[in-house]
Design brief:
141 residues; alpha+beta; Nonspecific Lipid-transfer Protein, Chain A; five-stranded mixed β-sheet; 19% strand
């Protein structure tokens, strides 16, 4: 059985380019940081997160001080999430649960386990924001 090359996997992605993924997830986390209580919650709990999306690559750093995207995003963070851009799309749309993506090996989280629930609580508004962002950017289903 033939396995797809990284170029053909990328062609199958909902995100045709790194810029498309950067636009989607950059917008998501910028809007999330503006949501009530998110920046203060990150600050009060001393939390930050680095998302390393693949296929295509999209790097996002979220902290109480702002959002960094691309090469500027590879900053120290209390937590690091590694996942594909398509998996992130499915999670933020609510089509795939984070728990099943974790147990299925599609998401890896690095950081203090005890503070993950606090972080996930602060990320919760992203589930409300992302469907509109995906629609506005015409990201295919």
């Amino acid at each position: 059985m033939r396995t797809p090359t990284s170029a053909s996997r990328r062609a199958m992605s909902r995100f045709p380019t790194e810029q498309a993924a950067n636009d989607a997830f950059g917008t998501l986390f910028t809007e999330l940081l503006s949501a009530k209580g998110v920046a203060d919650g990150l600050r009060d709990n001393d939390l930050s997160v680095f998302f390393r999306h693949s296929e295509p690559s999209c790097l996002v750093h979220l902290s109480p001080d702002g959002v960094a995207i691309g090469a500027r995003a590879d900053l120290p963070a209390t937590h690091r999430f590694h996942l594909s851009s398509d998996t992130a799309h499915e999670i933020w749309l609510g089509r795939t649960s984070l728990a099943s993506a974790l147990t299925g090996g599609r998401v890896t989280i690095f950081g203090k386990t005890a503070s993950v629930p606090d972080l996930l609580t602060l990320l919760w508004p992203a589930f409300e924001l992302y469907p509109r962002i995906a629609t506005d950017l015409r990201i295919p289903d």
